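hey can u check if this looks right to u? its 294 residues, i copy pasted from the old doc so theres a chance i mangled smth
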Amino acid sequence: MRHRYWIVVCTTVTLLTAPVAEAWWEQQHRVVAAIAEQHLRDESRHAVGVLTEGRGLVDLANWADQIKSKPAWRHTKPWHYIEIGDQQRLETMVRDARGDILRALNRSERHLRDASKDRRSRWQALAFTVHFIADLHQPLHVGNGTDRGGNQVSVIWLGDGDTPLKTNLHSVWDGLLTAQKLPVEDYARALNRATSEQISAWQSTPTVEWARESKALRARAYAFGDNFIAGSLRNKLRSAGLVASEGPPILGRDYADRTRPLAEQRLLMAGVRLAGQLNTIFALDRAEDAEPED
């Protein structure tokens, strides 16, 4: 079965509209994969090397995004998220008939466990697994069912700087919030500060709980606080006819300082848990190979 799954403030204010934030979210998926590689056991590292022909997890981390708009893989678009309303429970809600991230992840892991499958299909299953675990830890990939996971929530992003970017909330959390000039491997090492107790606790948590965590955390993405900035910057933008006096919210340093630690912890948790899943899968591979024939 096939799967697929800036604005410049000068003397005159110019507001740029953000293009699709592919470069930013590509970096974050690669960071998760790089963290996972630091926690792989030797047999898992070897198995990954065999499936990827020595290229590792980082190189395949974005494959699921790269193919989802191609005709043969468009059916995988719903596999990157799940929508659970604020008052809904996963156990009782009606799930999307097209699939969702939890079902897609379970299917990918099951396929990856099956050593009888050919290398190419297991490579695809590995690529989906790497990508979906990262997506599941981004709180807005567990959407509330009203705004397409924050894609329909317009914001102006300042972050730590003074260059306003017209974008949406999902793009902020998909990468703008944690965008770095550091190389991926260096950023992964900087984040990789989990204790042995945290690693054990995170890896022992069932996959469905990861979705519940994201659902519980997503309200913090919408907690804009005092970020509407009704002062000189908004007045300049309003005078230039670029924004209305009441919105969209301008997310600046205060928002970034409050939410970036959470976003970075979710990257770390995703990497640690990805490694845990792969260590379990490839340990089973090894055990099956070691079983004597009757």
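The two ends are 32 Å apart (CA to CA).
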